[in-house]
Batch of 2 targets.
Target 1
Amino acid sequence: MAKYRIDVATENCSGCSRCELACSYTYTKAFNPSRARIQVKMSGADCSVRFSEECIECGICVDQCLYGALSKTKKQEDQP
Amino acid sequence: MSRGGFAGKVLRVDLSAGEIRREPLDMALAERYIGGLGLCLKLCHDTIKPGCEPLSPENPIILGAGPFVGTNLPSTSRVYSVSKLPSSRTIGWCGAGGFTFGVMLKNAGLDHIIIEGRSPKPVYLKIFDDRVELKPADRLWGRSVDNTCQALWDEFGMPTGVMCIGQAGERLVPFSMAFVDRISTLGRGGFAAVMGSKNLKAVIVKGSGGVKVADRKRYKTLSKAFLDKIRSWPHLKQAQELGMVQAFSFVPRDEFARIKKRRAACVSCPIGCKDVVEIPDGPFKGLVKCTSSVINLYTPALYGFTDYRESIKCMVTLDEYGLDMFEFFGLMAFAKRLVDEGIIPRDAAKPEIRLNSLDSMETWARKISFREDLGDVLAGGFNGIIQQFGEEAEKLAPALVKGMHPYAGPGSAISWDRFGTMELGQVLDPRGPHVGSGGSPTYFASRPLKVFTQHLKRMGAPSEAIDRIIKNADGPTDRQELKVGALLRYSHAWFTMLGSMGICARGHINRFYNAEICADLYETVTGIPTDLPALRERVDRVWTLYRLANLREGLDRGKDEIPPEQWFSKAGFKNYLTGEPLQRSEVERMIEDYYKEWGWDPKTGMPPH
């Protein structure tokens, strides 16, 4: 599986959790935000996005983001 | 095929006895009533003691989230509550999105919660996966919505789903609202008062069980196609930028740009029409407000506020107490009129009621929420005022439907004058006036009829029904015909379909769904064989049961489904197509059309046995 560098623009994040849902569904076969390898926390106007150590930078989360809060760049070693 | 979507359990809480038990969800019932809203209505119908008082222990609270909630299907976070509501005295639904509550409920293994009885002391219900407890709420009772949410998040961390009430709900104000995750409302009708009457301050939930889908392969194909469709929508960026402001010109865009802090979305929503704003300057500089939509924050402007910063501050106060803004301002306008006419003694109305004054409105919000002085009478709502001040007051009352102030129409907050499905729906949804259930293209004035044809197809209306509802869509305007009553029947069915699955009904989201896709997705997620005719049948079963439950409560077509006189005044509604002043006889016909289209008795609205 390709690996990506994942960049986060928290100012664009809406807290929709689509990234957490997709990640957990991919790796646990169930939608389960608490087991996602990306964790989004929104509190008022503040937002933080963290990745757990289990994250393998597959970029599934980025594919689900429609707000431009996540973006991915293919890592050098995977390029031909 | 395995089963999915449903978590599989119902939590039953007896507050009087302090007993809690988990029961398996009756899957046959779930199939018949779809889930979410539909199953909430069925469980309420089966649980409630007919004729009970809304604020009595016999009135249950049914909470639920549909089978799509917790998945990543777009905008599927809806939570519903059903109870007998104190304002309308009818069994009614309240619905909310939110950040985490619905998803956490499903992840905690629950589709529904049935809450009965009355706790002897204030409590909150804590659900952390299988660990469910009633906890003392002494330290939360008396706190605002915002403060309660924050206290619970400080103690239990984020993300924890929180549904709670403010001081107005604690004091049984019949136009108090509960809040979900601080941002969404279970609103209109006084649901928070039902919680308050049970000494239930909050329900909090955290879960880690996961939500599965039955057919993963098909789900992958369908959900990808769906997301691609949304991603390629040319107006996506604009919708994300502006949210509800797109449709409401009373929010100046330059001000919105100045206060907008970030866009906020309910779980799984690709549009994100909720707002986080911050007042940039002036005496309230730095005040941050999370809101269901910025348009709500401008409601005081409709009543004369000229400084948007004061308008936002006023709404922060109303939301903290948990007061319904439409009812509050309608009520204050009524009270002012009664003072001006000498029916309420001027001495009793201190401070002076000034609808455009922050000081005055905040003080009255407090007096109502804490039932101080005249505030105690106003806290009884329109019915409370009329009971106190008698016939003279009643003659001066604004338009009322089931004891509530319509949100749209002459004298109401929203002054749209074309009479469409949402306007008629204020009379024909048993729960009383609410913005949620009657949506259709009549939301906007002067839409071409061909748009209605497409919309009806999308809602799953049979072609013969479309032919009954729309005539001469492509013909000259003076020969066109639109049966608003019959159209509303399908709006209600569509709302039922969306709500029962857990999909948001806001226009900019439901535009991506159609009834066929809903049937496909339902079968894919739940594993329950479902085609469009079967889904239609279940939807019709739900809304018909909703009506029957209310007829059992005494809903009377001749008393409760009467359009108010003010709608036919000089400044009243206009016919949607012609723009001519609306006649009572037209609305009576629409009501009959609505009943007929459902297959109910056209005179009484009674469904056949």
Target 2
Amino acid sequence: MMINALIFVSFLAALVPFSFTRPEHTTRAASIASTVVFALSLLVGVPVLLGAGPVAWGSVWYVDSFAALLVVLIGTVQWTATLASRPFLLEEVRAGVVAKPLVRRYYVLLALFVLAMLVTVVSDNLGLMWVALEATTLATTFLVAFYARSSSLEAAWKYLILCSTGIALGFIGLLLASAAASQSGVISALTGLRWSTLSLGAAAFSPSMMRFAFVFALVGFGTKVGLAPMHTWLPDAHSSAPAPISALLSGVLLNAALFAVLRYKVLTDAALGSSGFTDGLLLAFGTLTLVVAAAFILTQTDYKRLLAYSSMEHMGFMVLAFGLGPVGAVAAVVELIGHALAKSMLFLGAGNILVRFHSTKFARVADVRRVLPFTGALFFAGILMLLAVPPSPLFVSEYLTIAAGIGTHPFVIAVALLAFVVILAGFIRLIVPFLFGSESAEQPEHPVVRGEAWNISHAAMVLHLVLLVGFFGLIISGAALPLVERVAALFS
Amino acid sequence: MTTIGPLSLIAALILASAFLLPSRTRLRTLVQLFRVQACALVAYLLWSAWQFGEAHLVLIAALVCVLKVAVMPSMLLSIAKKSGAAERLALYVRPATLTFIAMAAIGAAVALARVLVVDHQLFPVAVSFSLVLIGFELLVSHKSLFGQSVGFLMLENGVFFLGLTVAEQMPLFVEIGVLFDLLALLVLATALIRRVQETHASATTDYLQALNDL
């Protein structure tokens, strides 16, 4: 029943903005609605994560530990992103960048986006999961094109066409899996699309059919994950959208798409009787994505694009880790949680920086730590978290991945380590003058005022930081390991 | 679902419409060919419904008829007319080359179908993969956003046709969800095309190349 309440309230949250005309009232009402969604996401996800077992509602919803983890992450990041949207949008409206009627559209689409992500991860039916994943693209296309600039239109077009094409290819994976299920005779056609049924009978599926199903699912849904070489939409879309939307796109949407890929991995591994085939593909795509992201991070000129390429890097790393067996799966789950919290925190900070400097170019931004003392300090902390500096949970995940792979796949780990060095060098080269440099290379278009008042976006960033450090502590002490292992066990 | 005479003929018509599409350079011709393909899909659905006694296929056929034969082509043509888009579509590759690529795509689709399915399903599955590959060819070969949209619609037709041939029975709510996702996508695509046309007085990718890291 709680899942129904979560989905229903998420839907109502999309209707709330229609009741208000003034941006101040719309933002407040949307914040309240997102708080309720957050509370319900905890009520749905936490009991499952603590070991209560999967929760189902008829043949529609099914929440296992991985889905529960994503429900909690989506609930948390949508909450902080919606709260941080208030100062961001009110400032954009005040500066004349955003027209007042667009504020309502923003919140409607934001709520629909969250609803689509939640349906993606709690659906038992793989067909409904597909429909919801495509709906995430549809709900966010106009958010990517929100500023109606030429570059936003370009980003939105690429996003719409590339992601929809990818998801259409993913549908072929779904059809082949469904055909394999019905041909096996174990599962009737009517229940053939239910994950909870498929996962029980997958051992009897045709191996050759499931190999193709997985390839289509990996390439198709992998496009939405941002895997190279299908990634070209990602840096454009994530850098063109308003910052709180970028936080959701990078922090949780990529994980929702990865969730779809991993569902097919489980089925394929069962059909083949081994994970060798899927692991090999995950290692190949993960390593390629990591390398491509590292190359572009080194040469970035735009801080939102830097964060977008960093998302690609972390998704590539997660995919690689999922290809490394049980220890890799544990590392990937830790990476998933850490990246979701750190990256969304950084995008919220990037929103504050954009509002003050009116530019996303490194050349036009400098001395952020002094101009925006709260944002600058928190942004710096977020960067350290992202670069896996302890007490970041990403340190644990990267250490575990190296440990898991160094003996079995030394070449892959060597390439990953080289990519990390390049990424670290790229971040240091770009972020040090950005945060601490006294003068920007180019004159800012608008005069930059120093100082800032504490607002809800800073509180949201602090919450993310506390969660990151707290999660690190819980892993090191061993308290969070059963939870992480429960999620990882689904894939190993 | 087995394929027999009339169904194979309809599948052949679907394949022929797909083969002709890449070499067309006028928007109206492209859209009308897509319409013919959608009509053939409707015929395939109705014949299958009658042949196998699957009543739900009639509802799907009605939806496909309304959305893919009537609404979607009309939306594309209407937006093109309202925004003053050029009737002749710009391509990256010459039409003759695209025809050869389409032939190769059909060959690749047959090879893929041979690996995947048994003999009686071979032809419709090969047609499905041909549609997907030729749709993809249209997507990457057209500079025009209208041409890319038709390419995507055809790719989706291929996926839809594959669903009819390999998946025994897709739940109705999924079929309807897929069709309405497609409709929503086209509404968004046409809205974006209109904005691009208004901004640049051209709906081609020539003006959508600012975001590039290379």
